[in-house]
């Protein structure tokens, strides 16, 4: 089976909206809820993947954080050798510099799906998208056609919710 990026984005969006309705605006609960919803999605849609997440409270994970906040990897039957990396997700709720720093981890990564989750507390969401787009354009080692999925929780916009943008090299 394969993971569907649109369904992953939808899962993250629904989780954010459910937290917004509960007025839980602290980064810890948001991060935990998003990680749990992604782990649940992966397990439901492809039981053969190993889920690596750096949060001891997450159900359904197979191992702790492995290079990225969330990784879904395919291993050999003995779990000893890496076959492929299907999904990586980085999340950063800090300022623009911290967001760019974590996004750079995705730039150099080889994965079928790459997702960056962040919020616009330090700058308008569209200006953060511009900065990340600039980073993709400048990065020379990316292959043509590589995709990066950006999800920004719009705190500064009256229309709260995740704004999704797909960048393609």
Sum this structure up briefly.
The chain is of the alpha/beta class.
What does this structure look like?
With 169 residues, this protein is of the alpha/beta class. The protein has one domain (5-168). The chain has helices at 5-21, 27-45, 96-107, 125-138; strands at 50-53, 70-75, 82-92, 113-119, 147-153, 162-168. It has a six-stranded mixed β-sheet, sandwiched between helices. Helix 3 (96-107) packs parallel to helix 4 (125-138). The longest helix has 19 residues, at 27-45.
Structural features:
37% helix, alpha/beta
N-to-C series of helices and strands? HHEEEHEHEE
Biggest sheet character: 6 strands, mixed
C-alpha Rg (nearest Å): 15 Å
Shape: globular
Distance between the termini: 26 Å
Structural class: alpha/beta
Widest sheet: strand ordering: 1-2-3-4-5-6
Q: Could you estimate the helical fraction of the residues in percent?
A: 25-40%
Quaternary state of the chains: single chain
**Total helical segments:** 4
Mean pLDDT: 91
Number of domains: 1
Number of strands: 6
Low-confidence stretches: none
Which percent band covers the strand fraction?
A: 15-25%
Please describe the topology of this protein:
Layout: H1 5-21, H2 27-45, E1 50-53, E2 70-75, E3 82-92, H3 96-107, E4 113-119, H4 125-138, E5 147-153, E6 162-168
Parallel strand pairs: 3-4, 4-5
Antiparallel strand pairs: 1-2, 2-3, 5-6
Helix pairs in contact: 1-2, 3-4
């Amino acid at each position: 089976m394969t993971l569907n990026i649109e369904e992953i984005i939808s899962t993250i969006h629904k989780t954010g909206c459910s937290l917004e309705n509960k007025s839980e605006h602290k980064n810890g609960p948001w991060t935990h809820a998003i990680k749990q919803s992604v782990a649940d999605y992966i397990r439901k849609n492809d039981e053969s993947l190993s889920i690596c997440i750096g949060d001891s409270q997450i159900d359904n994970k197979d191992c702790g954080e492995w290079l990225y906040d969330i990784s879904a990897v395919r291993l050999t039957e003995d779990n000893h050798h890496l076959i492929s990396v299907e999904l990586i997700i980085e999340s950063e709720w800090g300022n623009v510099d911290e967001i760019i720093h974590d996004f750079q981890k995705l730039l150099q990564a080889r994965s079928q799906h790459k997702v960056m989750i962040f919020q616009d507390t330090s700058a308008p969401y569209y200006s953060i998208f511009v900065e990340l787009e600039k980073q993709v354009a400048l990065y020379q080692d990316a292959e043509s056609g590589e995709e990066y999925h950006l999800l920004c929780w719009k705190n500064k916009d009256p229309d709260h919710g995740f704004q999704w943008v797909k960048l393609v090299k």
